[in-house]
Amino acid sequence: MTDDVLGDLEPTEVRLRFAPSPTGLLHVGNIRTALFAWAFARHFGGKLVLRIEDTDTARNTPEGLQYTLDSLRWLGIDWDEGPEKGGDFGPYQQSARMDIYTDVVAKLLAAGKAYHCYCSQEELDQRREAARTAGQHSGYDGHCRTLTPEQVQAYVDEGRRPVVRLRMPDRPIVFDDLVRGEITFLPENLGDYVLVRANGYPLYPLVNPVDDALMQITHVLRGEDLLPSTPRQIALYEALAEIGVGTGRTPRFGHLPFVMGEGNKKLSKRDPNSGLGEYMARGFLPEGLLNYLALLGWSIAEDRDVFTMPEMIEAFDIRKVNSNAARFDPKKCEAINAAHMRMLPADDFARRMVPFLAQAGVLPAEPSDAQLGVLNAAVPLVQERMNTLSESVDMLGFLFVDDAHFGVDPDAAAKVLTGDADAVLDAAAKALADVDWTTEAIEAALRASLIEGLGLKPKNAFGPVRVAISGRRISPPLFESLELLGRDKSLHRLEQARRTTTS
Ligand code: GLU
Questions:
Q1: Which residues of the chain fall below pLDDT 70?
Q2: Which of 85, 113, 265, 269 is catalytic?
Q3: Which domain holds residue 214?
Q4: Whole-number Å distance between alpha carbons of 283 and 45
Q5: Pocket of ligand 1 (CB under 6 A)
Q6: Best substitution site from 27, 32, 208, 210 to test ligand 1's pocket, by max atoms within 8 Å of Cβ?
Q7: Model's pTM, two decimal places?
Q8: Mutational test site, ligand 1, from 21, 54, 219, max ligand atoms within 8 Å of CB
Q9: Which of 19, 166, 236, 378 sits in a 20 to 30 Å window from 105, CA-based?
Q10: Same-domain status, 357 and 486
Q11: Do the strands 326-327 and 163-166 form a parallel or antiparallel pair, or are they unpaired?
Q12: Residue 150 within a domain
């Protein structure tokens, strides 16, 4: 990355933050934000701060914090300061920082950077409407900017409780967005905005920049939806600098492009493709999901979609993030995940399947050595065929379930275990009864008996055997599967299927 991203900072002085509101598991949009902030910080050897923006108690859920931390841990996005880590700029949960905000607001008021506004909602609405009718800007009109002490007293006597507004500068606010280049906001579009509600409640446009200033954040990456708030936040930084809060340095901003879902609409938190829980349950690999999310706006090189997180960190350049909206493609997401599945060492692949097989009741949570042996041996049969880990249940369940729980999928039975299937199963059982139990010998025996002996096409020969032993029409390669299942179980299942065959 070029100096124009760092300015006069040393690379290791870079400090980013991820600032989620703890409303549940993370979703695709904020995971991408976390990923880019993390890759940015790690690229330079700087710091990632995790700050929990939990002042809006109505939106928080009790498990929200834990879900947020669990999400990040699952993803492998680690933070240097924040909950469970501590750091010099804590507390890192905004709900524990209320005194800090009160203090900063008092300083802003004392310095005239902010002021009390006593306008009622009705008055604001009326004046806004009048301005609109007159074709003027309808933002806050600055009514309470210059109240005399007598006017203030009159409002107080009326029992009005004021909000606190920031006094916005009367000049354009221009900044160089790290993704979108230079952006200018004109003062007529930037009315004095509310920092603190009349009930004393500090709002996001106050607490977020105050914490960025106090936590010495140097770069802010966040979604494009927050772009309209940026000029206001920059004005607040400047005010904070003047009253000596924080480093005096306004962070650089980078606004990440929208993520579009079905029908070219913004991917919402409620979209089924959005929630992290969905990806965890389907058995995505964290590295597969992150790789795909990185492609929503960034690419490591032309014609290259698959990369590891260390490779991303090495190459990440915020200046190369595309400002155009990115389209979320669930199929591509799965394909990228599949590519990462293929890259796993076999024992790692086996280990990662265990929780899915355990959850489905196919394996115990702590499988025996024998079970692990079978699972490891099965990896080469399925690693190229699975897109997500949860597919292991359908793919490999038949190797582990005991006879009492084994069943043939009725649809497969209806399609394949019919007509001459019993003759095929009989012949297969006979051929396998005392053959050497190796893949090669099993294959040779079945070919001799079913293809040469009965004159069947491979599909008609092996289809019934496959359904009989795996219960499904799609399974790992047949001869290897038989070998792994073992002779006794294989013969028993052929026999069982023989009995269910319908004519
Ligand atoms: N808590 C805010 C959010 O989750 C953070 C916004 C920001 O990064 O500035 O949207």
A1: 1-3, 501-503
A2: 269
A3: 97-249
A4: 31
A5: 19-21, 53, 208, 222, 226
A6: 208
A7: 0.92
A8: 21
A9: 19
A10: yes
A11: unpaired
A12: yes
Closest approach atom of ligand 1 to CA 223: 8
pLDDT in tens, 358-379: 999 999 999 999 999 999 999 9
| Cα 184 from Cα 84, distance rounded (Å) | 39
* Among candidate residues 289, 310, 343, the one where a domain is terminated: 343
| Distance from the alpha carbon of residue 223 to the mean position of ligand 1, in angstroms | 8
User: What is the model's pLDDT at position 3?
Assistant: 57
Q: State the residue for tokens 């409620």.
A: 270
DSSP string, 154-188: HHHHTT---EEEE---SS-EEEEETTTEEEEE-GG
Half-sphere exposure of residue 398, counting CA atoms within 13 Å on the CB side? Answer: 26
Q: State the Cα angle at 475 between 391 and 448, rounded to 5°.
A: 165
pLDDT of residue 503: 56
pLDDT value at residue 137: 81
String of b and e for 342-380 (b: at least 16 CB within 10 Å)? eebeeeebbeebbbbbeeeebbeeebeeebbebbeebbe
Which pLDDT score, from 0 to 100, does residue 423 have?
93
Ligand 1 atom at minimum distance from 222 CA: 8
Q: Is residue 477 part of a domain?
A: yes
Residues 356 and 494 in one domain: yes
Q: Are 267 and 297 in contact (CB under 8 A)?
A: no
The total number of residues shown for the chain amounts to 503
Determine which residue's CA is closest to atom 5 belonging to ligand 1. Answer: 19
Q: How far is CA 335 from the centre of its chain?
A: 17
Put residue 76 in one of left, alpha, beta given phi > 0 → left and psi -120 to 50 → alpha. Answer: left
Alpha helices (runs of H) in 195-275, residue ranges in sequence order: 204-214, 230-242
**Domains of the chain: total:** 3
SS3 assignment, position 259: strand
For position 106, which CATH number holds? 3.90.800.10
393 and 473 in a common domain: yes
Instruction: For residues 123 and 187, state if they share a domain.
Output: yes
CA of 329 to the centre of ligand 1 (A): 25
Tell me the three-class secondary structure of 124-156, residue by residue. HHHHHHHHHHCCCCCCCCCCCCCCCHHHHHHHH
Is 269 in the active site?
yes
Calculate the CA 137 to chain-centre distance. Answer: 39
140 Cα–ligand 1 center, Å: 24
**CA distances for 408 relative to 401, 448, 486, angstroms:** 12, 26, 18
Residue 2 is predicted with a pLDDT of 47
Shared-domain flag, residues 321 and 448: no
Is 230:178 a contact under the CB 8 Å cutoff? no
